[in-house]
Amino acid sequence: MIRVTVWNEFVHEREYEGIRQVYPDGIHGCIAGFLGAASDISVRCATLDMPGQGISGEILADTDVLIWWGHARHEEVTDENVRLIRDNVLSGMGLIALHSAHFSKVMKALLGTSMTLRWRNGDSEKLWCTAPYHPIAAGVPECIEIPREEMYGEFFDIPKPDDVVFTGWFKGGEVFRSGCTFTRGMGKIFYFQPGHEEYPVYHMPEIQRIITNAVRWAAPSVRLSSPPQCTEC
Ligand code: ZN
C-alpha cells in the first residue's frame, strides 16, 4: 500500500459559503475520497488547525507521499515543520504540491527560487499534456478543458524542472508550466497548478487521474532514515 497524507490549510472552505458548497468536506476530503478508492493507496488527512499543525516526525515516517494544499496561511507553518518535511523529502518521501502551494514555505525551502508567477482570477484553461510518455500522464487525454480556473502565467520562477508534463494555456493568452517534476535528494516532487478553491477542479475525473498517477510515481523506491550525509574517509 502507498501511504498518503493529504495536508490542507482548510481555511477558505470554512470562511466562504460558496467554497464550502464546492468542497463540503474540505479540499482534503475530496482528494482523500478519490485517492482512497484506489486499492493500492491508503489515505490520512491533516490540517493546519490540528495539534502540531497535523505534522510530526512519526506521521511523516509513516507517509510515502505528502500532498500539500495551502494559500492564505503559508507563513503560519512552523519552520520546524518545514525542516521535518524537507528532511523527509530528501530522504525519499514523495511530495505533491497543488495550486497555490507553489508559494508554500516547504516548496521554497526545497526548490530555492522565489516561486513567483503572474496571476489573475476568473479564466478558463486548456491543460495540454507535453510529456505523454511520463507515468503521471498515463491514460490522460492530450488536452483537458477546465471551464473555470485561476490564471497562473509565466514567468514562473522555478528551477529547471526534470519534466514539464503539462502546460496550461489560458483564454487571456498566457501559458504556464502547469505540471512539473523535480528531484531533491532521494525525493520526487510534482507541482500541479490546477485547483483554485472556488472551482470544482478536483471533482474532475481527468484531474483525479493525474493526481492518482502522481501518487504512484512519487512513492519512494528508496527511503533513508535521514537525508544523505557526508561520510569521512
Ligand atoms: Zn487560487
Structural class: alpha/beta
List the secondary-structure elements in sequence, H or E: EHHHEHEHEHEEEEEH
Radius of gyration: 17 Å
> Quick one: biggest sheet?
9 strands, mixed
Spans where pLDDT lies below 50 across 5 or more residues: none
Q: How would you describe what is shown here?
A:
With 233 residues, the chain is α/β, with parallel strands linked by helices. Helix content is 26%, strand content 30%. The protein contains seven helices and nine strands, in the order E-H-H-H-E-H-E-H-E-H-E-E-E-E-E-H. It has a nine-stranded mixed β-sheet with strand order 2-1-3-4-9-8-7-5-6. Strand 3, helix 5 and strand 4 (94-98) form a beta-alpha-beta unit. The longest helix has 14 residues, at 205-218. The mean pLDDT is 97. Bound molecules: zinc ion (ZN). Zinc ion is lined by residues 99-100, 150, 196.
Topology:
Layout: E1 2-8, H1 12-15, H2 17-22, H3 26-36, E2 41-47, H4 57-61, E3 65-69, H5 79-91, E4 94-98, H6 105-111, E5 118-129, E6 143-153, E7 163-170, E8 175-184, E9 187-192, H7 205-218
Parallel strand pairs: 1-2, 1-3, 3-4, 4-9
Antiparallel strand pairs: 5-6, 5-7, 7-8, 8-9
The site of zinc ion (ZN) has 4 residues, from loops.
